[in-house]
Specification:
Elements lengths: L11 E6 L5 E7 L5 H4 L5 H12 L16
Antiparallel strand pairs: 1-2
Organism: Paenibacillus glucanolyticus
InterPro entries: YheC/D
Protein name: ATP-grasp domain-containing protein
């Protein structure tokens, strides 16, 4: 994809799994919101997301207030 869309640096995929364990792609975002990952107890994931974004010049305002810790 990078050859066709060189400015596309990240994709966010919203997935669901039905009762038969069939995966479904609900939505694809070209500018995904990292806020849900800030609510995880372990911060490894959000730190990797921020480091990846920083490598190509993206800055994340991580003042997320939509959900509570661990929910």
């Amino acid at each position: 994809m990078s050859h066709r869309y060189p400015a596309l640096n990240e994709l966010g995929l919203d997935l669901a799994v039905d009762q038969d364990l069939t995966p479904w792609i609900l939505e694809v975002n070209t500018l995904p919101d990292p806020c849900p990952f800030t609510k995880l107890r372990e911060q490894d994931t959000i730190q990797r997301i921020v480091a990846y974004g920083r490598a190509y010049g993206r800055r994340y305002p991580l003042n997320c207030t939509k959900s509570k810790q661990g929910e």
